[in-house]
Structure formats: C-alpha cells, structure tokens
Amino acid sequence: MNVEIRVIPNAKKRAIARTPAGITVRLTALPLEGKANDELIRYLSDILKVKRSAIRILKGEKDRRKVLELPIDEKELEALLGGLA
After folding, report:
1. What residues have CB less than 8 Å from 60, skipping those under 6 apart?
2. Mean pLDDT per 10-residue run, the chain (85 residues)?
3. CATH number of the domain at 2-84, out of 3.30.1200.10, 3.90.190.20, 3.40.50.2300, 3.40.50.10860?
C-alpha cells in the first residue's frame, strides 16, 4: 500500500498522528545526509512490526512530503493509528 506522509524532522520526540491533511510523523533526527529518512524507516518498522527492508520511499527522498510503500493494508494502518492516539 502506498501512503503519503508528512515528516517533521528535529522534533523533541518521535510521534505519529493522523491529521486532517494525512499522516504526520515527528522525528528527532536532523534532515542531513539521510538521517531523518533512516529514522523514519526504523520508526515505522518498529510500529508496524515489519522488516525495515519492506518499507520503501517511493517519492520525496529530500522532501518533507514522502510517498512510502508499506507492506500492510489500509485497515491495519487505520487500526494502528487509532491505537496510538
């Protein structure tokens, strides 16, 4: 499933939330040399309980808006986001 995510790097703590604009992920890493992208993949793999290699960035490698390929379906994603809120 492809998902559009808005990333906020250099936050005080990591968090994921559903907003009216979509999914927002806050990361503690700075957006330098791919560190924020690495943290994004690690964080999502921990939350979704999938391998890191199963998550791919399709668009937005150097942008705050990213399109990710996730190995779960929409119902699973909604259940996880609802459980984290």
Report:
1. 66, 67
2. 94 91 93 94 93 96 95 87 70
3. 3.30.1200.10
